[in-house]
Amino acid sequence: MRRPQDTLVRELLKLCGRPEVISFAGGLPASEGFAVEAMRRAADEVLSQMPVRALQYSYTEGDPILRQAIADFETSRGTPTSADEVMIVTGSQQAIDLIARSFIDAGSRVLVENPTYMGALQTFRNASPEFVPLPHDEEGLNPAAIDSSFAGARFAYVMPTYANPTGMTLSEERRIALCQKARELDLWLVEDDPYGELWYDKPAPKSLRHWAPERTLRLGTLSKTLAPGLRIGYVCGPKEALNVLSLLKQTCDLHTSTFAQLTAARVFTSGALEEHLPQVRALYKRQAQAMLEALEAHMPEGIAWTRVEGGMFLWMTLPETVNTTALFKRAIDAGVAFVPGQAFYAAGDDTHHMRLSFATVPVDKIRTGVERLAGLLRAAL
């Protein structure tokens, strides 16, 4: 804990709390997307029908009812899954931590996209790995450029669907190619998929587990579809790997909240989740369209951004002469906030990108915020 900690974003985001600031910096899901009524009904039913079970200690690997419900859900999405291939964790962030503790020794090579989710980088850094950036091009991760020099890594951590921070989605062709490379090089794949159900017009391609079930640990969460306060995530993967993670989880928290698990399971089995998802997707699609239209209308030339098809984020690329970290405080003074791209890189010192989140900002404020940001960037250019 004496090592320097990742304080850049934490310190910058403290400045976003001013009421006059329109913040595109947050990574929280929209509260309008919480399944409040479905959760209330489910909680009442759980406490009425199985109160002792709900309020008692449970299994480290998760309650069998929820494990089966998630296995059925994953199977319905195109990847056959059994309950013993599912483990429940306290938010998918715990899964990242358990995987780091289980797989990484000091100096171990870990393959990551560059940029990638900052919360994973922070967690992996606690185990002191050597980060190796995966090759990418304008379409995202490029499996064709992965060669024998990547062999020997403990795993590749990837976010192929509506990625944080870029919003990009890996094509089915590249997913298949990535799985083939993983087999050739004997690599584990850690597939982090918090946003996969937040598609706008059509579902994303199937999970990496569909093509490489024997070497993929797939991380899912209910934070973006039901509510983050549940703190329920899950890992799908080979039973032998889950057994190791379960032994480690037992030393951390014994098990994830039984009451929360059974309440979530009831939402699954009652059909309430499938009824709720279209509303969440429509909400994020509306927010995303508002931001994309505002960017098109107001941004100066020389700036590019991802045309997202799902999720909560988009990624903006500026000329290399513009330092977004240095620009941040000026943005706050101008009444708008973003996350500088520097925070998402495991290697290199990229300073000309930024992440924008539209998830929690009303449509009218999205337009105003983009206008403010465009004026700031126009001056910077």
Keywords for this entry:
single chain, 381 residues, alpha/beta, Aspartate Aminotransferase, domain 2, 2 domains, 7-stranded mixed β-sheet, 4-stranded antiparallel β-sheet, 15 strands, 14% strand
Descriptive account of the structure:
By secondary structure, the chain is of the alpha/beta class. It folds into 2 domains: 8-34 and 275-380, Aspartate Aminotransferase, domain 1, CATH 3.90.1150; 37-270, Type I PLP-dependent aspartate aminotransferase-like (Major domain) (Aspartate Aminotransferase, domain 2, 3-Layer(aba) Sandwich), CATH 3.40.640. It is 40% helix and 14% strand. The protein contains 12 helices and 15 strands. It has helices at residues 8-13, 36-49, 51-55, 64-76, 92-103, 118-125, 172-185, 239-253, 258-269, 272-298, 324-333, 363-380; strands at 22-23, 86-89, 109-112, 130-133, 136-137, 140-141, 155-158, 188-192, 216-221, 233-236, 304-305, 313-317, 336-337, 339-340, 353-357. The strands form 4 sheets. It has a 7-stranded mixed beta sheet with strand order 2-10-9-8-7-3-4, with helices on both faces. A 4-stranded antiparallel beta sheet has the order 11-12-15-14. β7 (155-158), α7 and β8 (188-192) form a beta-alpha-beta unit. α5 (92-103) packs parallel to α6 (118-125), α5 (92-103) packs across α8 (239-253) and α10 packs parallel to α12. It is globular. The two termini are 40 Å apart. The model has no long low-confidence stretch (mean pLDDT 95).
